[in-house]
Design brief:
Blueprint lengths: L2 H16 L2 E3 L5 E5 L2 H4 L12 H8 L16 H15 L3 E5 L2 H4 L10 H16 L3 E7 L5 H5 L8 H16 L5 E6 L1 H7 L16 H28 L2 E13 L5 H14 L1 H9 L4 H13 L12 H7 L6 E13 L12 H5 L1 E4 L16 H14 L5 E5 L11 H19 L5 E7 L18 E3 L8 E3 L1 H12 L1 E3 L5
Parallel strand pairs: 2-3, 2-10, 3-4, 4-5, 5-6, 6-7, 7-9, 9-10
Antiparallel strand pairs: 1-13, 7-8, 11-12
Helix pairs in contact: 4-6, 8-10, 9-10, 11-12, 16-17
The site of one 2-acetamido-2-deoxy-beta-D-glucopyranose (NAG) has 2 residues, from loops.
Length: 494
């Protein structure tokens, strides 16, 4: 017997003898996710313009683990029919993917439309519709047109206007196919890794400033995109619009120490709260204003490093999330390190929070340095979001595990199983509204600064083969089974 068969037998015996399975609600949506830059390839094909990730990987290959880029990636631009055939085989309810802005507007602006790019997405929409697969569409997943990056990208408030023109065009062209829109993907990640470090495009390490300006422009751009949809398209298209927010769960290092509990809460407000608070409650979280304003003043800045919203902007942003698009991968332990009036010579959002992060040595690791398997963190995160923002409808739109290209990926299955069990508990025991789950990712792809070294796919892609051969992993069969049975064994995931 192969390892696969033995494991199947163990799962089967477990199922028969204990019979402890949990069932997902009938209307719970199962899907998978990808993004344009990570899978499409065809970076300079059929009229596409340069994105800031094209520019970044071509100019700073040393910042990518394996010095690779996504010029070809999975070549999904040319192989989308094969990729959709896997979606059909999995029988997912939905497919989350993104539209490449520079494939639609090569220079970022609407004075030049690349109709070949538009037609590519229409072909994908039509094929999905044929198989009854709901598209969940991200309008922006980090591939900013490079000419707009040259103008300052996400630190330039004028970007809001350019984004507005782009999203209006997408609603016009694709809106008839789409019920779930995502304006922007994970601004936290871009703003930290791209504007406060050199790790991600554009690699502008503007410590203590870039992080907040980037968040500010993202929030204004999202709100504008939301209002355009509501004012001009909702009546005929009846879709929902959200911004996709990612979070690590923050656990106090010492739960019986009040200062640790406060440090964890403060970190949640500086990360998820930076977006959730303006969207649901209005304006930045108070603790963020207090800390950054205070430190900026003590550091002698003429104005706070945290940009201020006008009262019109506060009202404009508040209430612009039809559902809560949540990404969750992992957790951290948090402890306080200093009073915010100390270490004034250092300007960084980390110093503004006054905390340090670590991990629990009992958490199982993945091959990716930041990703530990902490399933209960997802349940905690769902509950935190529900409590802070008055029980929004939550749609988990990314969750997944990294390994080094193994086909018998039982660590991934274990990770997914645990996270889905904790999602079910949030629904059944905590009575939270979680409407669906997107597994990241359908297939191996370009994992940003990790290049192709880390694989997240339930389908393996052989990047050295001529045809970029796709091979399903054990986790693919596991997920397909789950989608069909809608039941899961949660015995081992208390
Ligand atoms: C597209 O980029 C590739 C490198 O990835 C290059 O070899 C090719 O000449 C380019 N094609 C066009 C049309 O610029
Ligand atoms: C796919 O899922 C739908 C809806 O959940 C179900 O009705 C259908 O029978 C499934 N198809 C297959 C081939 O399993
Ligand atoms: C945790 O905090 C409590 C309260 O401050 C303290 O009594 C205890 O010693 C701390 N535990 C550890 C392991 O540091
Ligand atoms: C700030 O000052 C501390 C203490 O004098 C020193 O250890 C640290 O390296 C300084 N940091 C920077 C960024 O200058
Ligand atoms: C690649 O795919 C093409 C078209 O399906 C096929 O003709 C060719 O034999 C394949 N090449 C390899 C090396 O598998």
């Amino acid at each position: 017997m192969s390892i696969k068969q033995i494991l199947f037998l163990i799962v089967f015996i477990n199922f028969v003898s204990f019979g402890r399975t949990d069932k997902f609600p009938d209307n719970f949506l199962f899907g998978v996710a990808t993004s344009a830059y990570q899978i499409e390839g065809a970076w300079n094909q059929s009229g596409k313009g340069e994105s800031m990730w094209d520019w970044f990987t071509h100019n700073f290959p040393e910042r990518i683990q394996d010095t690779s880029n996504a010029d070809i990636a999975c070549d999904s631009y040319n192989r989308y029919e094969e990729d959709v055939s896997f979606l059909k085989d999995l029988n997912v309810s939905f497919y989350r993917f993104s539209i490449s802005w520079p494939r639609i507007f090569p220079n970022g602006q609407n004075n030049r439309v690349n109709w070949e790019g538009v037609n590519y997405y229409i072909a994908v929409f039509k094929l999905l519709k044929e198989f009854n697969i709901e598209p969940v569409v991200t309008l922006y997943h980090w591939d900013l047109p490079q000419p707009l990056n040259n103008l300052g990208g996400w630190t330039n408030p004028l970007l809001v206007d350019y984004f507005a023109n782009y999203v209006r065009f997408c609603y016009e062209q694709f809106g008839q196919y789409v019920k779930y829109w995502i304006t922007l993907n994970e601004p936290q990640t871009t703003c930290i890794n791209g504007y406060s470090s050199t790790e991600f495009a554009p690699g502008y390490n503007i410590k203590g400033l870039g992080f907040y300006y980037c968040a500010y422009v993202h929030l204004l751009a999202h709100a504008r995109a939301y209002h355009i949809y509501k004012d001009e398209f909702y009546e005929t298209q009846q879709g929902k619009v959200s911004i996709d927010l990612t979070m690590r769960w923050m656990e106090p290092l010492n739960k019986s120490d009040e200062s640790h509990v406060l440090a964890a809460e403060r970190t949640l407000q500086f990360t998820m709260g930076l977006y959730g608070h303006p969207l649901y409650l209005g304006d930045w979280p108070q603790i963020v204003k207090d800390n950054v304003d205070k430190r900026s003043e003590l550091q002698g800045y003429a104005r706070s490093r945290l940009p201020k919203f006008t009262s019109e902007q506060i009202d404009f942003i508040k209430g612009t999330n039809d559902y809560f698009a949540l990404n969750y991968y992992t957790s951290n332990l948090v402890y306080p390190t200093h009073d915010i009036t100390e270490d004034l010579n250092e300007t960084s959002y980390g110093k503004d929070m006054g905390v340090s992060l670590s991990i629990d040595s009992s958490w199982p690791s993945s091959t990716s340095s930041w990703l530990y398997n902490v399933p209960y963190g997802l349940r905690s995160m769902i509950n935190w979001v529900a409590e802070q923002y008055d029980n929004p409808e939550i749609f988990i739109l990314e969750n997944g595990f990294a390994d080094l290209h193994t086909l018998d990926d039982y660590d991934r299955i274990n990770y997914l199983n645990g996270h889905l069990c904790h999602t079910l508990r949030a629904i059944n025991e905590d009575k939270r509204t979680v409407i669906g789950y997107a597994l990241w990712s359908l297939m191996d792809n370009f994992e940003w600064s990790d290049g192709y070294e880390q694989s997240f796919g339930i389908i393996a892609v052989d990047f050295s083969s001529v045809n970029l051969t796709r091979t399903v992993r054990a986790s693919y069969e596991w997920y397909k089974n789950l989608i069909e049975s809608r039941t899961i064994d949660c015995e081992d995931f208390e």
